[in-house]
Amino acid sequence: MKLWKRTVLLMLVTLLCALIPVGTLSLYITGKRSLNNAAETYGRQLENGKILLEQFWDNSKYEQMSETGKKAYMGFQFQRCCGEGMALIDRKSNAVIENLTDYKVVGLENLGLKDEGDPYAYKIQKLGQKYLLLQMEPLSRPEGYEVLSVREVTGLFAELRQTAVWFLGIYLAVFLIAGLFIYMMMRRTVEQMEKLQEVAEKQELLMGALSHEMRTPLTSIIGYSDTLRHVKLKDEQKDRALEHINREGKRLEALSGKMLQMLGLYQNHAIQMEMTMAGDLLNHVIDMEKEQAEKKAVHLKMECEAFSMKMDPALMESLLINLIDNALKATDAGGSIWVKAYEKAGKKIFEVSDTGMGIPEEELGKITDAFYMVDKSRSRKEGGSGLGLALCVKVAEIHGGCLKIESRQREGTTVRAIF
Fold first, then answer.
1. What's the mean pLDDT when you consider all of the chain?
2. Cα(312)–Cα(34) distance, rounded to whole angstroms?
3. Which residues form a coiled coil (predicted)?
4. Which of 125, 200, 256, 300 is the most buried (most CB within 10 A)?
5. Is the pTM of this model over 0.90?
């Protein structure tokens, strides 16, 4: 697994570890608050019943009654003041004197409801599928008795379970959204870093290749210049040496110019897109290349359909000039070069084809590499640098297009820039 994916996974685990306790705590607080509210409501009812019972209780009458009368009087007063959901308990024996609840009350000695600090102390007891909220209040009149409140809160627990489901859904959504956001941000950051690294690597390769390519013409220039300085040559030999120095110097000039262009494109310096007519672009390029074609006795022809395209005119001009220059280098006197611009199947196509020597099939996959030359001796003789097609590929990519090359040896080459 890649480092950035491990980082995303670690961040998601950290987020999950943070969400679980937060969600659990939130659910606990919500449940506790709901139970406390219910306990306060039922506690007030219990307290009111207790107060009424104490107010209506008449000890003097009670003491004068028989055991049967006492029992009837106590039951009457309890039902009158407290009502359903409550039971009257003998504190000493824990016996149930009156039970107005729907349940049999047993095991009161283990309730643990003697919390003096909380007036609404309660205990939750599970009975089958039901949940009961139990509260107890001691009576001052009659002495030795307590009132037990038994309330069913099963619905409250059902709501808490529903709340838990909602909480889970919300936190899961938060986790997924946050996780997706983190993943996309990390991926975008890594892609940007990889692009920067790729650009740096390409520039490093270009500089290394440039250094290697410059060594040959520089060695030749230095050698011929040393010969001219230290050896007496005939005029014909001098002219040949000077011509060689001039040719290699021009090749170095072209090489450095192409190199600067490549570096500028890889750094994505200001590119100005504007709508430009294909005909205007081709006419300008043909005017610039016409003289070179005439010198080589090569026929330069143009065919253009009327359409416009959003482009950086300077870069597109550079693309076409490089393609035409390559065609001129590959085409002997009497040959022809066609420069075309047309639309086909929704695509805008600029095409340069020649009747030159062509490219071997096994070389087609390499010719767009920087400094690669099919025929190095011929390219150097013509002043080639091996950067032209690499530059064209980059220009096409900047315009959202691609370069397609077709060639047959001794028949010619066709290069299409498709947008």
1. 82
2. 68
3. 186-213
4. 300
5. no
